[in-house]
Model the fold of this input.
Amino acid sequence: QLQLVESGGGLVQPGGSLRLSCTASGRTFAMGWFRQAPGKDREFVAWLSYTGATTYYADSVKGRFTISSENAKNTVYLQLNSLKPEDTAVYYCTAARIMVRLTTADYWGQGTQVTVSS
Done:
C-alpha cells in the first residue's frame, strides 16, 4: 500500500503564498492534489505525471498554483500563489496507479489544512 505524507499547510493572508509538499513511499504513474472546503465536496486541484510531461489543473487554480516534482525523492510540490479566501480547504495529496481521473484517486494522504484569512 502506497503511503503519502503531506506537509506545508498553514494560515496565510489573502494574496499570500504557500508551498505544499508530499512524499510517496514508492513510485507511481502520477501524483496530484485534491481539496475539500468546509461544507463542500472534495474537488480536483492538479495532477502531474511521473515523467513531468503532462499536467492538469482545475480552472479555479490555473495561473495561480503550480505543481512540480522531484522524482528522485518521490516528492510532489504544490506552489500556491495569489491565495484567496475561497482556497481555504484541507488539501490532500493523491497518487494514481495507471491513469489520472479528475474525480478521484487511487491513494490519498491524510490532508493538510490551508487557511486564507486576514
About this structure: The chain is about 0% helix and 50% strand. The mean pLDDT is 95.
